[in-house]
Amino acid sequence: MGMRLRELRTAAGFTGKQLAEAASWPASKISKLENGRQTPTDEDIRTWTGVTGAAGEAAGLLASLHTLELQHAEWRRLLSPGLRPHQDTLAAIDSRTRLFRIFEPTVIPGLLQTAEYARARFAETATVHEVSGGVDDAVAARVQGQEQLYRPDKKFHFVLTEATLRYCLCAPDVMMAQLDRLVSLSALRNVRFGVIGFETRYVIAPAHGFWLLDQDLVTIETFSAELNLAQPQEIQFYAGVFDQLAAVASYGSAARTIITRVLDDLATETDETGEAGA
């Protein structure tokens, strides 16, 4: 975006100072916009293209700007209306998706979460991003969205790490119920469920989780934002990464053996510490 704005300025024969004066902006704004230190507003784009005699470029630049906003959606903005609206947005995307390829190295995917595990996750989100209320509504939306799992026209391929099954992100009894649910859901005919055990030699490190939705979108969650990647080369790249991770995962009875082992370990630890009701 910054490079394109600079091209329009130089093509019009303006220096940065001259463009700033023509637009009634501080001179520093030109440098910030061209070097990506400030995101232009819609009005900035219209002013820039108008002053440089390139009004015909405005529509394309505005479309690019809005694509960038979708690609890097800050949680603060996404969650400003509360927790529930974003869940409704995700549910609409899921309803259109036919093939889900999901890798998670840390958190149980939302489609597989029990209500209480989901509640723990939303409570954490509300705390981190200072969102007041809405946890119950968000949990209800997530549970309702899990009806997708039972639609025969959809296919799901989940790959989790054993660490995902062991992280203490909720109370022990909640995690035990969650592990039990994974065993049940792994038996669904349209679900392929893999676990990468601790003893597995990775070809690609499990750097972060991501969701591949059909051949259309890759979504990645960071602490500050949700990334939505739609470029064909990015989708192809992540599809290759997923295939590499899926190739070293255990499936079927072998995956359930890992889950059961983790469940037994957690039950033993809970008995020893007496934390089941924590």
Mean pLDDT: 92
User: Gyration radius, to the nearest Å?
Assistant: 23 Å
Tell me the total number of β-strands.
8
CATH architecture of the largest domain: 2-Layer Sandwich
- What multimeric state do the chains show? single chain
CATH topology type of the largest domain: Endonuclease, Chain A
CATH class value of the largest domain: Alpha Beta
Give start-end ranges of low-pLDDT stretches. none
| Major β-sheet strand ordering | 1-7-6-5-2-3-4-8
Condensed summary:
By secondary structure, the protein is of the alpha+beta class.
Please tell me about this protein's structure.
By secondary structure, this protein is α+β, with helices and mostly antiparallel strands. The protein has 2 domains: 2-72, lambda repressor-like DNA-binding domains (434 Repressor (Amino-terminal Domain), Orthogonal Bundle); 79-273, Endonuclease, Chain A. It is built from 13 helices and 8 strands. It has helices spanning 2-11, 16-23, 27-34, 42-51, 58-71, 75-78, 83-96, 115-128, 135-145, 162-166, 172-185, 232-247, 252-273; strands spanning 72-74, 99-104, 155-161, 191-196, 210-213, 217-221, 225-229, 250-251. Strands 1-7-6-5-2-3-4-8 form an 8-stranded mixed beta sheet, sandwiched between helices. Strand 6 and strand 7 form a beta hairpin. Helix 4 packs antiparallel against helix 5 (58-71) and helix 8 (115-128) crosses helix 9. The longest helix has 22 residues, at 252-273. The model has no long low-confidence stretch (mean pLDDT 92).
How are the SSEs placed, and which strands pair?
Layout: H1 2-11, H2 16-23, H3 27-34, H4 42-51, H5 58-71, E1 72-74, H6 75-78, H7 83-96, E2 99-104, H8 115-128, H9 135-145, E3 155-161, H10 162-166, H11 172-185, E4 191-196, E5 210-213, E6 217-221, E7 225-229, H12 232-247, E8 250-251, H13 252-273
